[in-house]
Design a protein that fits this description.
The chain is of the alpha/beta class. The protein is built from nine helices and eight strands. It has an eight-stranded parallel β-sheet with strand order 1-2-3-4-5-6-7-8. The longest helix is centred in the middle third of the chain and has 18 residues. The two termini are 20 Å apart. Bound molecules: nickel (II) ion. The site of nickel (II) ion (NI) has 5 residues, from loops.
Length: 256
């Protein structure tokens, strides 16, 4: 039996209003060992903590996404820090830089990326990083501020050079639905060179739905299509790969 883990989900989002409870109830039946529910702003971080507090098989991460840093107020990061004190909060995130959509000004993205890296460092928590169209800048910041820290670059979309840099810094690489997409040859080439013990499996649901469900809403159970694709690329037995990915997630998030 294939036990899988989704290290990056957003089931607090409205896309799950109709069947969130059912998805949670079915986690075990769907062979999902656990999921990490990831906040993107203060409200969703609170929801993530609540979901993890109330349910077996759910852990949480708290932080302010680069899209949302423009909404940060004086006490927001203090509240994030307080939330991080709850026992099932296993990481700070997602944080980072998004120069593709630029929903917050670049200077603010940089400022709060660094502040939240420093927060994670102070709290001794792993860091979940979102990067889009900003790999050079984000990796430079991480190199300066996040050495020796546990970091995952989630839903990795960088170049081969970026992978090498991230690996040289000891970072983990999050792989999600796009690895199954027809046109994602660069990503699959990247997966070939990432050691299996550095990969975290994830969905980023409700987004990035893998084939064969691309176009529909994503959900945690579809992580198995990501795991199968990774096994295929690595030319390894899928059970072995699933076991390793589960071990990686437990190791990364200190879940025992
Ligand atoms: Ni996300």
């Amino acid at each position: 039996m294939l036990k899988v883990v989704d290290t990056h989900a957003h089931i607090h989002m409205p896309q799950f209003e109709g069947d969130r409870d059912l998805i949670i109830q079915n986690l075990e039946k769907d062979d999902i060992e656990f999921i990490v529910e990831v906040g993107v702003d203060l409200e969703s971080s609170k929801k993530a903590v609540r979901l993890s507090y109330d349910n077996h098989g759910i852990f949480s991460a708290v932080g302010i996404h680069p899209h949302d840093v423009k909404g940060i107020e004086e006490d927001t990061l203090e509240e994030i820090e307080n939330l991080a004190g709850f026992s099932k909060v296993v990481a700070i995130g997602e944080v980072g830089l998004d120069y593709y959509r630029n929903l917050s000004p670049k200077e603010l993205q940089v400022k709060y990326f660094i502040e939240q890296i420093e927060l994670a460092k102070r709290l001794d928590k792993p860091l979940i990083v979102h990067i889009r169209n900003a790999y050079d800048k984000a990796l430079k910041i991480l190199k300066e501020h996040a050495r020796e820290m546990k970091v995952v670059i989630h839903s990795f979309s960088g170049s081969l050079e970026d992978v090498k840099t991230a690996l040289s810094l000891g970072f983990y690489i999050g792989i999600s639905g796009p690895v199954t997409f027809k046109n994602a040859n660069t990503l699959r080439e990247n997966v070939k060179i990432i050691p299996l013990n550095r990969i975290l499996s994830e969905t980023d649901c409700p987004y990035l739905t893998p084939e064969p469900f691309r176009g529909k809403r994503n959900e945690p159970k579809y992580v198995k299509y990501v795991v199968e694709k990774i096994a295929q690329i690595k030319e390894k037995n899928v059970e072995l790969v699933a076991d390793q990915l589960l071990e990686n997630a437990k190791e990364f998030f200190n879940i025992r």
